[in-house]
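User: Could you walk me through two proteins back to back? I'd like the raw sequence and the structure tokens for each, with a short line separating them so I can tell where one ends and the next begins.

Assistant: Of course. Protein one, sequence then structure:
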Amino acid sequence: MDGDGFMERKSILFNSTTRIDPLALASADYPIGTQRKNVLLSIVAGFYYTTGEIASYETLQGADQGYSTLGSDMADVGEEDLLECLHKAAESAADVSAEAQWQQNMADRLLTDFQTDDPDQIGPPIPREYFLR
């Protein structure tokens, strides 16, 4: 990928980060365990995890051109952060056990429908409608 494409992606990432960081800061305004705090933390953790995974994939594919697009707060995000995101999302639901069950059912479906032998391979985009079934 050419340098311009990389800089465009870096610009998109920077603009997204400047929009998500206030959510992270705003979560400090709410007491631990409140629905609003859990929603905000879930959004931030999900964004950081997804961004980190995309950057890792680009590095594996050589598309990053040797430049880092992530700050250390995103580069160090892993599966435990994804689990925290899902946990906070469930805690923010009106019916915590129903949300946790939906998450488990969705994970099972994704593993069945999109199984791969190569965990470093990113498959085709999954349409939004898939998650609404």
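----
Protein two, same layout:
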Amino acid sequence: MTDVLILEDELTSLQALSEILTTYSDDIRVHKASSLKEAKDLLDQEIRYGLFLLDDEKDADSDEYKKQVERQTEEQAFNERVEKEGHELASQAQKNCIFAICKKHGVDVKELYSSNNLDEKKLTKNDATNVIRSLKKKYGDD
């Protein structure tokens, strides 16, 4: 028998996960906790859990959720600004940034432009922003 502990504060999700697991196998015993107190009480018992299911969603009343929404709003405003400015030619600073990231990670800048059907002399602010964003995402640079 496998004991599974589900930590989920949203009751509908908690019930759904429980039903899925118990339907899946008769060899699963589900323990549910929707609060920190319930979780501590279950963990204080002498049960050896074979699996933990944790709620990792940002709840609407949490600080993390507020920060996530603020980041999304800032990113949306940034994207709207880029759309408006996107047809202007890229600045030298943007081109330098692309060059620096490529150099740091051993990427051939000319090959980067070529493979993305871009011309460095006709590179727009919008294109440069997308290239920089993609490079940073790929290489984890901030």
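The radius of gyration is 25 Å.

Let me know if you want the two compared in more detail.
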